[in-house]
Specification:
The protein is α/β, with parallel strands linked by helices and about 290 residues long. It has a single domain, classed as Rossmann fold (3-Layer(aba) Sandwich), CATH 3.40.50.970. It is built from twelve helices and eight strands. It has an eight-stranded mixed beta sheet with strand order 2-1-3-4-6-5-7-8, sandwiched between helices. Helix 3 links the parallel strand 1 and strand 2. The longest helix is centred in the last third of the chain and has 21 residues. The radius of gyration is 18 Å and the shape is globular. The chain binds thiamine diphosphate, iron/sulfur cluster and magnesium ion. Iron/sulfur cluster binds next to helix 9.
Length: about 290
């Protein structure tokens, strides 16, 4: 039977105001389980701010604060520098930001943090749009997905965060997904132990913005990984490793048909996206 007392033992309380089936809630619970209470968190505006709450109401049992959308990485780097000035080298500073806050509005701040070599764990939970303000498209919205600013489906492919951070010669970067929580937790641990900046890019199914039933969050995560719509790989001090290599990827249409946001996609667009997935997957396999 469900035991509400033991559920509340983690670093996120129960009764948070995220939507039912929210992938973000699952991710933050698992991330903080690995990082532990010696962690300070910086959260920009977005759905993750639901966990900071208002005033004295917060779902998080660790210290932290909500900053601006533009500069999560800079805040985190400043906090880390302040802690080090005080002789504290043990506390993990976690920047926990959405795709809009990372790939669009805060990209300059993240770039600076990596280039300076600041020891911050930066997590981008990617629900592939500006969800908290009404499902506007971001540069991480996948091609073909309908949002309130791309009602006919986004016409351009998404920006590739991993390629951007790898171009900075970052010590550690990885993608992850709720489809494989053991892999996600291993990467959080590795990122925490990295002596320098680390970035995790985590796929974050969002029933409200992607238009699927809240009971299907894990099914959608798995379909994304099985079709290569989301690839699991890591970059560790110059070495690239693909963590999930199926013999063949399933057709991406199988992932699209589970979600209302792709309901108007044409067969021609599906074929173009399929070709892009195949070539990116082969590139990753060759590089690893
Ligand atoms: C500079 C700036 N522009 C716009 C906003 C309004 N705003 C608050 S949350 C948000 C959405 C952020 O999207 P994302 O980072 O993807 O997080 P999500 O809501 O999807 O979890 C926006 C646009 C803001 N706070 N600051
Ligand atoms: S809009 Fe999406 S990401 Fe935001 S709380 Fe709801 S399900 Fe979670
Ligand atoms: Mg988002």
């Amino acid at each position: 039977m469900f035991d509400i007392k033991s559920e509340a033992k983690g670093l996120v309380s129960h009764g948070v105001s995220a939507c039912a089936g929210c992938g973000l809630e699952l991710i933050i619970r698992n991330v903080l389980e690995i990082l532990g209470e010696d962690t300070l968190i910086v959260i920009p505006p977005g759905c993750s701010a639901l966990f900071c709450g208002y005033g004295n109401e917060t779902a998080l049992k660790i210290g932290g604060f909500q900053g601006n959308l533009e500069n999560t990485a800079a805040y985190a780097a400043g906090i880390k520098a302040g802690l080090e000035m005080q002789g504290n080298n043990h506390t993990t500073v976690l920047a926990f930001a959405g795709d809009g806050a990372t790939l669009d509005i805060g990209i300059q701040s993240l770039s600076g943090m990596i280039e300076r070599g600041d020891k911050v764990l930066y997590i981008c939970y990617d629900n592939e749009a500006y969800m908290n303000t009404g499902i506007q498209g971001s540069s991480s919205t996948p091609q073909g997905a309908s949002t309130t600013t791309t009602p006919g489906g986004k016409v351009t492919p998404r920006k590739d965060l991993m390629q951007i951070v790898i171009a900075h010669r970052i010590p550690y970067a990885a993608t992850a997904s709720p489809a494989n929580l053991a892999d996600l937790k291993r990467k959080v641990k590795k990122a925490k132990e990295t002596d320098g900046p680390a970035v995790l890019h985590i796929h974050t199914p969002c029933p409200t913005g992607w238009a699927f039933h809240p009971s299907k969050t894990i099914k959608i995560s798995k379909a994304a990984v099985d079709t290569g719509a989301w690839m699991l790989y890591e970059y560790d001090n110059g070495t690239l490793k693909v963590n999930y290599k199926p013999k063949s990827l399933k057709p991406v249409g199988e992932y699209f048909k589970l979600q209302g946001r792709f309901k108007n996609i044409s067969q021609e667009e599906v074929s173009i996206i399929q070709e892009n997935i195949n070539s990116r997957f082969n590139e990753l396999l060759l590089g690893s």
